[in-house]
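User: Show me a protein chain along with its predicted structure.
Assistant: Here is one chain, sequence first, then structure tokens.
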Amino acid sequence: MSTTAGSNELRPLHERTTAPRTLPLPTVGADLVWRRVTDEDLPLILDLRRSAGALDHPRSLVTLDELVEAFNDKDFDPQQDAVIALDHSGRAVAFGSATTSASRGPVVRVDLDAVVLPERRRQGIGHALLAWQEGRGLQHLVATKSTLPGWLVADAREDVTPATGLLQAHGYEPTRWWLELERDLRLPIAAPSPQPGIRLVPYGGDWAERARSAFNDAFRDHWGTRPATAADWASDDRLEAFRPDLSVLAVAPGASGDERVVGFVLSSSNPDEWPLRGRPFGYVGAVGTRRAWRGRGLARTLLTHVLRGFRAAGHELAVLDVDADSPTGALGLYQRLGFTATDRAMSLVKQF
């Protein structure tokens, strides 16, 4: 059950909520076979996500290597944390997971991810899938014995009303909004402003750990975040779409004489996605500045450097996603650089 601040606030999660001891598979759909998930299901899940994605997120693609990395995460056990439904032809009709991480932020967060074939929606499959996910999510929460708030979190584009309506009907509240922004690179791009005492260098493996440290410092006051582990970081670096050559780091002398990363822009580009927007584009996956280095225009310098790099590489658009209420004022920065909103998504949360 959901709780609010008060007497429950410092009680361990396993005392202030309950979870099912066992979790039966869903049974909805006379022609469906529900079962646990294995690595061998990855091609089926990719096909399902591509089919549903054409409706749910028509300007982006899920890739096989993203799924492989998710399945290889040490905190994810597909046999326990996910279910799949197959029809009589063996095609995946539905998939759902409930995952958490041993790396903790200010809350114990469980992410619920579900997808149903568009032609099989409004048949009760989503309801059954959410019930299973919530049960597994509660098992994750109570297993921590933490006194932190417990969150079950699901994300959806704002205009995908069947998903958002289902979640809200089950007690999930819209809590945070995310904007997708685009920037036309055919328009003028300002020259990067000089930053005394700072070097701009391309991202590379030698900088990985220092970049991760900067990322964790930059994002520790952002909503819903948790520290990125070394395994998380290496996983992202392995993705085929990641473009270290179109990413940039700001480095400055450290206290011990070595250089430390004080700001970063990390980018990716997937040519398979370009037709979805009608032209080549680069995606800005992360922008950040160490807290002690904020207020100096460093993020603007890094971004203009990357935008010019995108254009030189033949991209005509830059795309990014931003927390509409970012505490750093990131949205305003992007707007001043010429980005405009093209889509809106939300995070829906059920608190315990």
